[in-house]
Amino acid sequence: MSDHQADLIVHARWIATVSADNTVLENHALVVRDGRIADLLPSALADEKWHSDEIVRLDDHLLTPGLVNAHTHAAMNLLRGIADDLPLMTWLEKHIWPAEGQFVSEQFVYDGTKLAAAEMIRSGTTTFADMYFFPASAAKATVEAGLRASLFCPLLDFPTPMGAGPEDYLRLATDAMDEWRHDPRIQIGFGPHAPYTVSDAPLQKVLTLAEELDVPVMMHVHETAGEIQMAVGNTGERPLTRLQGLGLLSPRLLAVHMTQLTDEEITLVAETGTHVVHCPESNLKLASGFAPVEKLRQAGINVALGTDGAASNNDLDMIGEARTAAFLAKGVSLEADALPAADVLKMATLNGAKALGRDEDIGSLEIGKQADMVAIDLNRLETQPVYDPVAQLVYAATRDQVTHSWVGGRCLMNHRQLTTLNEALILKNAQQWQQTIAGAEK
Ligand SMILES: CSC[C@H]1O[C@@H](n2cnc3c(O)ncnc32)[C@H](O)[C@@H]1O
Ligand SMILES: [Zn+2]
């Protein structure tokens, strides 16, 4: 390869870099070599300086970093619509856990994660943080789809189709960590489900192992007021205080939901460097509340964005989630400048990468980082004219305007055609699962 031979050059009308200075470049080219961004320069100069057999010209598009869905349960796509309009604990205990107990298997997770991967690619996500059973099956589906994932291995006090109890779950998690240690696409972490399903002893083991193996931990925390009332009634302590006592609050922890927080707890989260994952649509649909995002941001907390699973959201659309997050922040603070478009895009990209400890590699479009990026066609009646492309993405565009996706410079979607996944087969499998599951309910 000559000095200026590239694997891929993408010219775009706008490039939202999400770098520290938040630059939006106009009429620039992004040059990819060996999966990484080798150059970012004005299109006219790129034509003189760089050569490539693969040149993509996107004259009406905004190029952004691939979106990072910082919390989901991918395989739950197969349970989308199985139980709606219910509060969290009824939804979980009366519908979701019984269905999972009956149907979740390696094949369910593989098929469900493929279905989710197709939806995620088609809506601009390139990395997702998953917390679900049989992570080896999720990893296989992820790698075949060409996405990146951080897979948080489940841990609960009670048996599930995947394991008999904490010792089992911990062994499965460390086995997965061994297996995937050398693959840069897959990161494995611990996913203790929630304070109300995991007791102190296994949580202490998680902490010791996570520190020893230097891996992240993800947990649903303070999702509802009921969770806190129950804990206070049983132990006299709020769950966050308990987690702090156990030493779990740290930059290693991604605390998901956090809808119930006192000012003192916000200070504690900030001081410990704990990351918060905001899942506004799931929280709204389950009527759980919402994280006080503006207060968290003002306290200096890194807030990432997640969809949660498709059984509570009911989609994995990070563009829609970003819009909901922005509107909600404005609505609850009564401040129109709360969570501006550029900040919510950062929340959906770089902040997620940071929470996962992957921001040296992904989350922004900067020279040296992985070429994980997506293109959004703004030349539609719904998004013209364009004064501010990032505002247009957040406030007006929809996920079907995502036309291209690359992970490490590899194209996963070209003009809305998936290149790694068989859509017809994924659809057929999803319909078969629906028949099996609905048939068993009769
Ligand atoms: C330990 S595997 C994941 C486990 O979590 C369940 N789940 C999905 N969404 C939520 C949520 O919003 N709060 C709590 N638990 C949730 C999922 O069904 C699996 O059982
Ligand atoms: Zn969740």
UniProtKB/TrEMBL annotation:
Zn(2+) binds at H71, H73, H220, D308. Keywords: Hydrolase, Metal-binding, Zinc. Belongs to the metallo-dependent hydrolases superfamily. ATZ/TRZ family. This is 5-methylthioadenosine/S-adenosylhomocysteine deaminase. The gene is mtaD. Binds 1 zinc ion per subunit. CDD domains: ATZ_TRZ_like. It comes from Alcanivorax profundi. It comes from the Bacteria. One of its GO terms (molecular function) is metal ion binding.
